[in-house]
From TrEMBL:
Name of the molecule in the record: O-antigen ligase-related domain-containing protein
Localization annotation: Membrane
Domain O-antigen ligase-related: 185-323
Family annotation (InterPro entries): O-antigen_ligase-rel_domated (IPR007016), WaaL-like (IPR051533)
One Pfam family matching this protein: Wzy_C
Length: 509
C-alpha cells in the first residue's frame, strides 16, 4: 500500500464531508468502547445514515461506488439476512440488536468507497494515531484489568487486534513518508500490544511483521531506502520479543498457553455446543443473537467467541457463504492485480485469523476496520473515484436511497432512545430507584418487543420490595418477570429468577 501526503482542500465538498464523517466515527469509537454497547452504536448508526443521506443529496453515489457496486450489494444481502432473521429468531430483541450492530458497516463502506486514493490513505493513517491514543489514554487512567491493558475497550484481545494493525500502519507510513513521528506511534502501540497480553494476537503480529519485511523487499521505497525499510519492519518484532522476555506477567500468560489451558478449554466447550446447535439450524441459523438464549444453561456467555461460528448460528450457512464472498472478493482482486500491498493484506489476514478464536469483530469499530481494509486491499493502485466516469443512476434511485437512509435514521434513533433510557435507568438504579423505574418503564413502552427491560424492571421492583418490605413491589416484580418469560419462556436465567422471586419472603418494615 502506498500512503502519500495530500491535502483535502482540492477535493469536492462531498469527498471532504465523507472524510470528516469517517474521521469523527473513528475517534468517537475510540472514546466509546469501540461502539460495543447498544446505547452507543445505535445513535452512531442514526448519525451515519443521516450523513449518507446528505452525501447522496449531492449526487455523488454513482461515481463513488462504481468500483465496488457488486461488493456493496453483497454487504446489503448480508444485512438483509440479519434483518430477516428477526422474523424467525429465538430471541427477537437480540436479533434486532445484532442486526443493528452490523448495519453500521454499510454507511461506513459507502463513505469510504467515495474517497479518492489520497484521502483514503489519510484515513487509514488515522488508525495509527487512534491506536496510540488508546494506549496513552489507558496508561494515563490506568485502564488495566488483571494486569492487562484494556483502555476504553474493556476487552484486551479486541484492543490488541486494533493495536497490531495500527502499529503496521504506522511502520508503513514512516517507511513511505519518512516522518519519524510514525516510529514513535509504532513503538507506543507495540508496547501497548504487549501489555494486552494477547496470546493469539502477539504471535500473529510477530509473524506478520516478519512477512511484511520480506514482502516489501521489491517495492520502490525499499530500493531507495533498504536500510530504513529493514529497520522499520524488523524493529517492532524485536521490541516485542524483548518485552516478552522482560515481563514476568506476560511470560506467565504465555507459559500457560496450550491445548488444555483453562481459557481454551472453555472456548472449546462453547464451540462444541455451538456446532451442536448449528447442526440443527444449519440453513438459516437461530436468528441473530440466538446463541445467548439457546446455549446450554450450565454457563452464561453472550457470544460464542468464534466469529464464523457466530455468523453461522445467526444466519446459517447462507449468511456464512455471503460473508465468505465479502472476504474472498477483494482478496481475489488483490491477487489478480499483481501489485504487492503487504500492509492491507497482512492486516486483513491477522483480523480474519484472530476472529476464528475470539470476538473482536463483535465490536463495530473493529469490524469497520476489517471491511475498510478489505475495500482498500481490492482497490486498484492509482484508483481515484473522482476521476471515474459517473454511470447514470436509475430514475428515482437517488431519491429512494435518500428516503431509505432517512427511514433508517429514524429507526435507529428510535432504538437509540429506547436503549438510552434503559442505560440511564441502570445507572440510576442504586442512587435513585424511583427515577430508574420511570425510565425503564419508558424504555419498555418504546420497544414493545423487548424482554430485557421487563427483566430489569423486575430486578428494580425486587430491590424495592426488599428495601421497603412491600408485598406490592413483589407482585409488580412477578408481573414484569411474566412479561419477560412470555418472550423467552425457556430462557434459564429468567426461569431461575422467576422461581427465586416466587420463593422470596417479604417482611414488612
Amino acid at each position: 500500500m502506498t500512503i502519500t501526503n495530500s491535502r483535502l482542500s482540492s477535493r469536492s465538498p462531498a469527498e471532504r464531508f465523507a472524510f470528516f464523517v469517517l474521521a469523527a466515527y473513528l475517534w468517537a469509537g475510540v472514546l466509546l468502547a469501540g461502539y460495543f454497547y447498544e446505547a452507543v452504536f445505535l445513535p452512531a448508526n442514526a448519525l451515519l445514515c443521516l450523513a449518507v443521506a446528505l452525501f447522496l443529496r449531492n449526487g455523488s453515489l454513482s461515481r463513488s461506488i462504481s468500483r465496488t457496486r457488486a461488493w456493496i450489494v453483497a454487504v446489503l444481502l448480508l444485512l438483509a439476512l440479519y434483518w430477516l432473521s428477526v422474523f424467525y429468531a429465538a430471541d427477537v430483541e437480540a436479533a434486532v440488536v445484532e442486526a443493528s450492530r452490523l448495519s453500521g458497516l454499510l454507511p461506513v463502506l459507502l463513505l469510504f468507497s467515495s474517497l479518492p486514493e489520497e484521502a483514503a490513505a489519510k484515513f487509514i493513517r488515522q488508525w495509527a494515531w487512534a491506536g496510540s491514543f488508546l494506549v496513552l489514554w489507558g496508561w494515563a487512567l490506568h485502564l488495566f484489568r488483571n494486569g492487562r491493558l484494556e483502555s476504553t475497550f474493556g476487552y484486551a484481545n479486541a484492543l490488541a487486534a486494533l493495536l497490531a494493525v495500527g502499529c503496521w500502519i504506522a511502520v508503513a507510513a514512516y517507511r513511505e513518508h519518512h516522518g519519524k513521528i510514525y516510529l514513535a506511534l509504532a513503538a507506543v502501540q507495540a508496547i501497548g500490544l504487549i501489555q494486552t497480553g494477547s496470546r493469539a494476537v502477539i504471535p500473529l503480529f510477530v509473524i506478520g511483521s516478519l512477512a511484511m519485511l520480506f514482502m516489501g523487499r521489491s517495492s520502490a521505497v525499499n530500493r531507495r531506502r533498504p536500510v530504513w525499510l529493514s529497520l522499520a519492519a524488523a524493529a517492532v518484532p524485536v521490541a516485542a520479543a524483548a518485552v516478552l522476555i522482560a515481563s514476568d506477567n506476560i511470560r506467565q500468560r504465555f507459559s500457560e498457553l496450550g491445548w488444555n489451558a483453562p481459557e481454551f478449554v472453555l472456548r472449546r466447550m462453547y464451540w462444541a455446543d455451538g456446532w451442536s446447535l448449528f447442526s440443527g439450524h444449519w440453513l438459516f441459523g437461530l436468528g441473530a443473537g440466538g446463541w445467548e438464549t439457546a446455549h446450554p444453561n450450565r454457563y452464561f456467555v453472550r457470544f460464542v467467541h468464534q466469529f464464523y461460528l457466530q455468523t453461522a448460528l445467526d444466519v446459517g450457512i447462507v449468511g456464512l457463504l455471503v460473508l465468505g464472498l465479502l472476504i474472498v472478493w477483494p482478496l481475489v482482486r488483490y491477487a489478480k492485480s499483481g501489485i504487492r500491498k503487504p500492509l492491507p493484506l497482512l492486516a486483513v489476514l491477522l483480523l480474519l485469523v484472530h476472529a476464528a478464536f475470539d470476538l473482536d469483530l463483535i465490536f463495530p469499530l473493529c469490524s469497520a476496520l476489517l471491511f475498510v481494509l478489505l475495500d482498500w486491499t481490492g482497490r486498484p493502485a492509482g484508483h481515484d473515484s473522482s476521476a471515474a466516469p459517473a454511470s447514470p443512476p436509475l430514475r428515482g434511485f437517488r431519491t429512494a436511497a435518500i428516503c431509505a437512509c432517512l427511514a433508517a435514521t429514524i429507526g435507529f434513533g428510535w432504538l437509540a432512545a429506547g436503549y438510552g433510557m434503559k442505560s440511564a435507568a441502570m445507572r440510576l438504579a442504586a442512587s435513585d430507584p424511583a427515577e430508574a423505574i420511570h425510565w425503564m418503564r419508558q424504555s419498555a413502552r418504546l420497544m414493545p418487543w423487548t424482554h430485557s427491560a421487563h427483566f430489569q424492571l423486575a430486578k428494580l421492583y425486587q430491590s424495592e420490595a426488599l428495601r421497603t418490605g412491600s408485598a406490592g413491589y413483589k407482585l409488580m416484580a412477578l408481573e414484569e418477570m411474566d412479561s419477560a418469560l412470555r418472550a423467552l419462556p425457556h430462557y434459564s436465567v429468567y426461569v431461575h429468577w422467576s422461581d427465586t422471586l416466587k420463593a422470596m419472603d417479604i417482611k414488612a418494615k
